[in-house]
Amino acid sequence: MSDIELIDILSRDFDVLLDDADDYNVAIYAGKESEMKVLGAHSVVLRARSSFFRQALSSEWAKKKDNLIVLKKPSISPDVFKIILRYIYNGRMSFDLVKDNATILDILIAAEELCLPELCDCIQDHLRSNNDEWLKKNFALVYRTAAFNDSFKKLQAYCDQIVQEFPELVFKANDFLDIDERVLLLLLKRSDIRMDEVDIWDHMLRWGISQTHNLERDISKWTHSDFTVLRTALYKIVPLINFSQMHSIDFYNKVKPFRRILPTDQYEDLLHYYLVPGNQLTSARLAPARTKSSIIDWRHAALISSWIDRKDENISTSGFTPYTSAGIPYEFRLFLRGSRDGFSTTIFHDRCDAQSHTVTIIKVRDSFEILGGYNPLPWKKQGFDEWQETSDSFLFSFCDDTLQNVLVSRVQEVTRAVHSMPSFGPSFGISDLQMKESAKDNFICTAKRMSYERPIRKNKEAFAIDDYEVFQVIAKKNPAPP
To answer: Could you tell me which residue ranges the BTB domain spans (predicted)?
Structure first.
């Protein structure tokens, strides 16, 4: 007979011990008064399996009644405690017998409270492997469970991945409106949420209005008192919204109608920022600088910022060190996203002309390849074949998500650094990176080295794109140390 078979027999015998014993010496009062049940157990088994029970059932802590050790646990329901007792006795966790995933989360919380780390790991692995869809739909509950408990590292890692890769799932979860404020604050303090700030603002308004219950849908009918109620609900939220990363059109359409819930000095500061070119914000700000790109994350932004500041020109034997996430000295303000705003040269010029210090990001179709370029000069559409001169522009490429294979190509022919034409989108050099409108494929692009140091693609053929974005890069007033 194998060792596994012997262990199975031992597990079965301990099942019998739990179910049929007449020598229990522990009475566990599980659940709150309305649902409380008394469960019998053996102290020797409990103490052998858990450090919690070793302390709770010790002579120093244990309380007795009618020759039984009495243990009260109102925080754990009888059904959950029965499942955990079964695990303590037979060493097995039978998920098929659990009625729903919410109960599995309750078992996880109880297992941590009862100091059963192996069970905690087992439950987290099960949830991640078998219940991905449910976790996403009930993200608020899952994140609240994991975020503030270091025993749930695996679930925390899962939540972090969702926030970084699929942030819209967080805000579109079935239970988003039930999310706890402290969980929301934890989310908003992150710099790696890859969403437009205006979309985050929309979701915060939706959450805030849901907390007040009685507000009209039509804000034109709101009274001063209504705005005061919403301002109170979002008092801690508003400082964590990065309003300066919104496009001016979005600020006008989405923020201005709710200006009365913002502090007056902050709103005036933002108004000045949007109306006066080059003006910097003066009011104190707590909001993190989010990359808010659907193509790149903070790692790409850190490298691009490092190239703008020419950190790569001070290369030691071990290579150059790019900025950290906290040390990025620039804000990336989104001007344009093709999939959101449209793929046309007219839209590009309407949104980006006269704007300087811009970064163009291109996602190549059917590949992991990301290309782009930095233009310190204002874009123009007037004239034909107009060249702009600068020695500070550069092109770059990221071949995959690992960032192990990256390339930067600085301008050589400075008199042909940037190319402006009404029929072209962002264009660098003679043909080093060009975007031309196409009725069939959004934009058709070429990347043939002519005016820059090196080619950013091996393939010289024209290529289509999945999406592209244009950001304005704005120096932070008080950047963190690099």
So the answer is: 24-97
| Among 24, 26, 52, 178, CA closest to 117 | 52
Indicate if the alpha-carbon torsion angle 4, 6, 11, 16 is positive or negative: positive
Q: How far apart are CA 45 and CA 89, in angstroms?
A: 7
SS3 126: helix
Residue 184's nearest CA partner among 211, 165, 166, 207 is 207
| φ, ψ for residue 337, nearest 5 deg | -130, 125
Query: What three-state secondary structure class fits 48?
Result: helix
- Three-state DSSP class for residue 266: helix
What predicted TM-score, i.e. pTM, was given to this entire model?
0.62
Q: How many CB atoms lie within 10 A of CB 321?
A: 15
Sign of the Cα torsion 304, 307, 311, 312 reads positive
- Distances in Å between the Cα of 232 and the Cα atoms of 185, 211, 238 are 15, 10, 10
Give the mean pLDDT of 135-153: 90
Q: What span, in angstroms and rounded, lies between the C-alpha atoms of 424 and 437? A: 7
What angle do helix axes 117-130 and 101-113 make, rounded to 10 degrees? Answer: 160
Query: What tokens does 191 get?
Result: 């710099």
| Digit-coded pLDDT (tens) for 355-381 | 999 999 999 998 999 999 999 999 986
Average pLDDT, the chain: 88
Three-class SS state of 209: helix
Q: What is the pLDDT of residues 233-288, one digit of tens each?
A: 999 999 999 898 888 889 999 999 999 999 999 999 999 888 886 677 776 666 77
For 353, which DSSP code? B
Asked if residues 137 and 162 have their Cβ atoms less than 8 Å apart, the reply is no
Q: For Cα atoms 305, 250, 472, give the angle at the middle one, nearest 5 degrees.
A: 20
Q: Which domains does the chain have, with CATH numbers?
A: 3-161 (3.30.710.10), 196-275 (no CATH), 298-475 (no CATH)
- 190 to each of 144, 170, 222, 288, how far by Cα in Å? 16, 13, 32, 7
Identity (one letter) of the amino acid at 328?
I
Q: CA-to-CA distance for 309 and 307, rounded, in angstroms? A: 5
